[in-house]
Write a structure and sequence with these properties.
This protein is α/β, with parallel strands linked by helices. The chain has helices spanning 49-60, 78-84, 99-106, 113-118, 129-134, 173-180, 199-206, and strands at 5-13, 16-25, 30-37, 40-44, 67-72, 89-96, 122-126, 148-153, 183-193, 211-221, 226-236. It has a 7-stranded mixed sheet, sandwiched between helices. Strand 1 and strand 2 (16-25) form a beta hairpin.
Length: 239
């Protein structure tokens, strides 16, 4: 029988101690994988509905084949997997600041690691998503200044709650203008938030993009036996 709890890896990082844990959730009879940064939970395999919705909602309005997509924040890989489930996706670049998270996928320490690493459309980039968004060269070091059909981001807890205060500039109108420069005309920017919809943030997006909206994603929390709502923000670059 597998241990009820085990720490699969621990790394010191520039923003704190990072750990990958597996524990048995007896109430549900499942193994749960969790990523923690210090005392904060970054990701749990028990709650993935909104991470999947980020991909599905973000790509729903895009037509054509061989779409080129960026995912900012690898986590446990659920957004990346959902992107690759769309047959019209031609390439996926996944950017993560934490090299350990990429290592865990390549080593198969997380459930989706081997699947994502083996997909020829998927490539991991170790880098600071926010710095790359603000740069002229963009997200793909192999093809500088490459434009994408969609950029989908799940890094901070919300547009107001950051893992690092240095990320705050990204969520300004200027930050969104830099980001939009890496999108093709009509391209989609999607952003995950742990909080409910914020009309003020949607208005900030609308200052830069042709349209912007907040999509609530409600799912059942089996541990608390009640619904919980997170948000996916979507915005389109002018065609």
């Amino acid at each position: 029988m597998a241990a009820m709890f085990e720490e699969l890896d621990y790394r010191d990082t520039p923003i704190g101690g990072l750990s990958l844990r597996r524990r048995r959730e007896l109430k549900l009879g499942v193994d749960v994988f969790e990523i923690k940064l210090g005392d904060e939970f970054l990701m749990s395999s028990l709650f993935t509905a909104s991470e999947i919705a980020l991909a599905d909602l973000g790509l729903a309005a895009l037509a054509g084949d061989k779409l080129n997509v960026v995912v900012g924040g690898l986590g446990l890989g659920h957004t990346a997997k959902a992107v690759l489930a769309h047959s019209n996706v031609g390439s996926l670049v996944v950017v993560d600041y934490l090299e350990a998270v990429i290592d865990w996928h390549r080593q198969g320490l997380v459930p989706l690691g081997h699947e994502l690493s083996a997909d020829p459309r998927c490539r991991f980039v170790h880098g600071d998503f926010f710095a790359l968004a603000a740069s002229d060269k963009g997200f793909d070091p192999e093809t500088p200044s490459r434009a994408f059909d969609a950029v989908l981001v799940d890094i901070d807890h919300s547009p107001e709650a950051f893992l690092d205060e240095g990320n705050a500039a990204f969520y300004s109108a200027d930050g969104f203008r830099h980001l939009a420069a890496h999108l093709k005309p009509g391209g989609v920017f999607g952003l995950w938030s742990n909080d409910g919809p914020d009309p003020a943030f949607t208005s900030r997006l609308a200052e830069v993009f042709a349209d912007a909206r907040a999509e609530p994603v409600t799912f059942h929390n089996p541990l608390q036996n009640r619904p919980f709502t997170q948000t996916v923000y979507l915005a389109n670059k002018r065609a």
